[in-house]
Amino acid sequence: MVQATETVKLILGVGKPLVGRLLLYDALEMTFREMKVRKNPKCPICGPNPTIRALIDYDQFCGVRGSEGALSSANGASDAEITPQELKALLDRVEPPLVLDVRNPEEIAICRIAGSTVIPLSELPNRLGELDAARYMVVHCKSGVRSAKAIALLRAAGFARLKNLKGGILAWIKEVDPSLPAY
Q1: What is the C-alpha to C-alpha distance for residues 82 and 97, in angstroms, rounded to an integer?
Q2: pLDDT in tens, 124-141
Q3: Domain that residue 97 falls in
């Protein structure tokens, strides 16, 4: 409510806004405290000699590159993604793909796609030698974010036959195996 009020005051140009002041609220004691805040003269954004003049490229900063983020014009799905139903069909074949699970051990203890290889994302850079770069691989995590990062890492290491499980294990549970517990 206080933030909304401050916004209205700034838009209308009325009242005394909290510019240069910080309002601290203690809900347990139901008290407010006001502190004056001075501009940092060495601030790289608002100081007298700014060195940061633009926002960062968020996709590049988070490791999303090129086709990993590109959308297919046909169905809105990424060309580097595979649906849970498509993965299920591949797993039923004679030579299924390697399913790489990059979740943490505590998540694996809750549920797991049968037969998947487990290498947590944090360990993946040091364990690339355990994987066959020539084998078709489907990478997954809980919802698809960490597996996209894993795919970027794997592509940089020379792996080419990669797909990200769209929606991660949560989508697998919802669409293929509802007997697994969702978390």
Answers
A1: 12
A2: 999 999 999 999 999 999
A3: 74-175
Looking at the domain assignment, is residue 69 inside a domain?
Answer: no
pLDDT tier for residue 115 given thresholds of 50, 70 and 90 = very high
Q: Could you give the angle at which helices 168-175 and 84-91 cross, rounded to 10 degrees?
A: 80
Please identify every residue annotated as catalytic. 141
Q: Quote the DSSP letter at residue 117.
A: E
| Structural domain includes residue 181 | no
User: Is the pLDDT assigned to residue 73 strictly greater than 70?
Assistant: no
- Residue 10 has φ and ψ, to the nearest 5°, of -70, -40
Please report whether residue 88 resides in a domain.
Answer: yes
Task: Cite the DSSP H helix spans in 13-144.
Answer: 58-61, 84-91, 105-108
Whether the predicted model's global pTM rises above the 0.85 cut: no
